[in-house]
TrEMBL record:
Organism listed in the record: Marmota monax
Protein known as: Uncharacterized protein
Superkingdom of origin organism: Eukaryota
Length: 105
């Protein structure tokens, strides 16, 4: 399932990410186009948090990005976020999550 298919309002999410996190449009697009396994999301998020590092392998536990140059840039940008920006990113994504769709997919 693509991340964008689990969100309530892509336009609002994009606007919120631009204004609060200040990540590039390319990274936002890559996140929305990434695939996510909702059955593994909690264990993957926990594994990421406990690992204390961020790289392509760790991000792949949570999101499967398309294999392209933009996705590599997005992974670098996401891993470069300080904790003070990573937390709001998670909050904004969670606030825009369509729970009904998430549960049914």
């Amino acid at each position: 399932v693509k991340v964008k298919d689990l969100m309530k309002n892509i336009t609002q999410l994009t606007k919120d990410l631009r204004s609060s996190i200040h990540i590039s449009d390319e990274t936002i697009h890559s996140i929305l186009e990434a695939n996510i396994s909702h059955s593994k999301i909690l264990s993957s998020a926990l594994a990421m948090a406990l690992s204390g590092k961020c790289d392509q392998e760790i991000l792949h536990l949570l999101l499967t990005f398309p294999e392209d140059e933009t996705s590599l840039f997005a992974m670098k940008e996401l891993c470069g976020l300080p904790g003070s920006k990573a937390y709001p990113l998670i909050v904004v994504m969670s606030q825009n999550l369509n729970l009904r769709t998430f549960i049914n997919k």
